[in-house]
Amino acid sequence: MARDRRDKYYWKAKDEGYRSRASYKLFQINGKHNIIKEGDTVVDLGAAPGGWLEVAKEISGGRVVGVDLKRIAPIEGVETVMGDITADRTIEKILGLVGQGGADVVICDAAPNLSGNWSLDHARSIDLTRSALGCAKKILKPNGHFVVKVFQGDMFNQFLEEVRDNFAFTRSYSPQASRSQSAEIYIVGKKFLTSPVRRGSEFEVEIKELGSSGDGAVLIDNFVVFVKGVELGDRVRIKVQDVKPNFAFAEVIKRLE
Fold it and tell me: HAMAP family per the record (predicted)?
């Protein structure tokens, strides 16, 4: 309580009628990265007490769904689901509310119960964020966006790479509203990838076409992959370096006879 009384965002939330000081984190994340747009369907995972739900509804004006193991006090225009985000039944309930097409945006400001043991708390945070990412992959539309809170530590970079494998644009970001002593940071993933290839995937291909820039162009499950440094007729083993929503880039790792 003493910490709260010295916190300008605590009093700002009180004055402006938001449920949580965390509301300003989402405003700041959205101001920087334009995650939620007017009319978007938004799902908030681990949403209690509802601070991010209020902001998501205010920004999008569209359908907003909050999910938590705890009951969330009603918010006008917001629908809620009580359930475990790792359970198929919860996924079905979410899709029942947002439609089978999925959500435009999935956000998660949830944190694990803290023990005071930093290594344990970091591991719990990573486990929770992986659950959020797994849920997002099941309910996001193609090209949808994702924001999740994670505690920094030894496993942070590995999780960042997992997000990067599923989104065309990935960044980490610390909003000003995060407390200075906090180790929390937010990972932003934009343009959810549903392509048949991922960074690091390897394929053996024959170059039958060249793109307008002179790079080789091959189709993998009807998805275009551009390959540098090849000529028509080359048979090569390639490794995907970068994936965009509509195409990917790869490099040659072996030339085949």
Answer: RNA_methyltr_E
Burial of 128 (0-12, 13-18, 19+ CB in 10 A): buried
Q: Which domains does the chain have, with CATH numbers?
A: 2-192 (3.40.50.150), 202-256 (2.40.50.140)
Condensed to tens digits (0 to 9), the pLDDT of residues 128-185 reads: 999 999 999 999 999 999 999 998 888 999 999 999 999 999 999 988 877 666 778 9
pLDDT recorded at residue 112 = 83
C-alpha closest to that of 253 among 232, 236, 234, 229: 236
End-to-end CA distance of the chain: 71
Higher-pLDDT residue of 7 and 176 is 176
Residue 68 assigned to a binding site: yes
User: Which residue among 25, 57, 141, 149 is the active-site one?
Assistant: 149
- Quote the CA–CA distance of 121 and 49 in Å, as a whole number: 21
Asked if 135 contacts 146 with a C-beta cutoff of 8 angstroms, the reply is: no
Q: What value does the mean pLDDT of the chain take?
A: 90
Cis peptide before 49 (omega within 30 of 0): yes
Is 44 assigned a ligand-binding role in the annotation? Answer: no
pLDDT, mean of residues 223-249: 93
Consult the annotation and say whether 99 binds a ligand. Answer: no
Q: What are phi and psi of 99, to 5 degrees?
A: 95, 155
